Amino acid sequence: MSVEVERKFVCNADTLKTLEEIGVCLGQRQFCDQYFDTPKFDLTLKDMWLRKRKGCWELKCPTTADKAEETSGEQSRAAAMCSRYKEITNLPEIQLRVKEVIKDVCEDSETETSPSQEEESWMSRNNLVCFAEFTTVRKSFTLEEEGVQVDLDEADFGFHVGEIEVLLPEGGDMQSALNKIQRTAGKLGLTGDKRVEGKMHAYLRSNCPEHFARLLSEHIL
User: The pTM is what?
Assistant: First the structure.
């Protein structure tokens, strides 16, 4: 399991030019994301994001802030610009985490099933339905000296966003990751002290207003 520490930003022509000068381009790829939850939003109301990308399941769960990073002044502001999520890609562990949250599970009788049938059965038992689906074209850069990846995303619903990302092993040095992101933001000339919305935020606001309102009221978004 890893922890994703990320700061989103608005990429303009100057930012892109700087990124192309100081970063190494890793290429461009396209992928489709499907996000799943119950009709009552059991997962997302706990800030848990279950998605399927390229046939693989992923679950992003909130991680508690490290006390060491709860400092005042500039460091605190830099930390507030970043999100932190545990990324789980092991399907049995994902299923266990989902089961802990969703109490209304319909147990199936024990029968021989294929992997695809088992997946459908798991989704059905937990009443999981797809609430968001979109395709992203991503161009990635690395700043090797910082151990940072920068992604420029264009979603098929007309939304663009940049992401500065550091992946940590669970229990890794969070303050070091935040410092790397802050230095990279400085090199890219990023300003402002408010978080930039991501693809999911923008998608829900435009396409799922009831879901979006619930998440806002619970301070998830």
Answer: 0.88
